[in-house]
Design a protein that fits this description.
The chain is mainly alpha-helical. It contains three helices and no strands.
Amino acid sequence: MPQHQEKAGIGDRSAAITHSAHTILVDELNAQIGTAESIDVIVSFIKQSGLSPLLERMAISAAAGS
């Protein structure tokens, strides 16, 4: 089980976006960030709790020149 799925309700929230109970959004985003040529983030609002799980992977990608 992916580490982020253990938190209560995150699977339900991810399923609303990914349309799959088996795909956890933060895990999918981290996988895509890891292979991206560039990263653009556009949101109308974001909470720190939603951004925190992505920061490490984004920092690694930024250091690699993405």
